[in-house]
Amino acid sequence: MPRLLGVEIPGHKKVAYSLRYINGIGPTRADLIVAEAGLDPNMRANDLDEEQLSKVLHIITEHKWLLEGDLRREIASNLKRLQAINCYRGIRHRRGLPVRGQRTSTNARTRKGARKTIGAKSSK
């Protein structure tokens, strides 16, 4: 398994798909990296040699994208800022409710978690 930026990318997949395992690289950026490195789009990640890996790494660092830990830290700090200023979105994040206007009377189970039964009566 090749290793880039501290992430082990799957070797049996095509390079563009393997690069997506790095947080902050999606389909568009992965295709851009493969094109700039001059790699065959059908090449598997296991088939990359050291020179090609270093070329891919050079392209990633050259673009100065926020990736992995830096990106996670940036997102976490944005959420903390929203919560600190007590804006509507921050309050919704704090309470674990949907943030972008979705309905909550039904659905929203992903965000709210499992149902918490209230007032269930036991039969005697």
Automatic annotation (TrEMBL):
GO MF term set: rRNA binding; structural constituent of ribosome; tRNA binding
UniProt GO BP: translation
Any single Pfam family the record assigns to this protein: Ribosomal_S13
GO CC list: cytosol; small ribosomal subunit
InterPro entries reported for this sequence: Rbsml_uS13_C, Ribosomal_uS13, Ribosomal_uS13-like_H2TH, Ribosomal_uS13_bac-type, Ribosomal_uS13_CS
Region called Disordered, residue ranges: 96-124
Keyword Cell division: no
Keyword annotations of the record: Ribonucleoprotein, Ribosomal protein, RNA-binding, rRNA-binding, tRNA-binding
Biological role: Located at the top of the head of the 30S subunit, it contacts several helices of the 16S rRNA. In the 70S ribosome it contacts the 23S rRNA (bridge B1a) and protein L5 of the 50S subunit (bridge B1b), connecting the 2 subunits; these bridges are implicated in subunit movement. Contacts the tRNAs in the A and P-sites.
Subunit structure: Part of the 30S ribosomal subunit. Forms a loose heterodimer with protein S19. Forms two bridges to the 50S subunit in the 70S ribosome.
HAMAP family tied to this protein: Ribosomal_uS13
Family that this chain belongs to: Belongs to the universal ribosomal protein uS13 family.
Protein's name in the database: Small ribosomal subunit protein uS13
Taxonomic lineage from the root: Bacteria, Pseudomonadati, Verrucomicrobiota, Opitutia, Opitutales
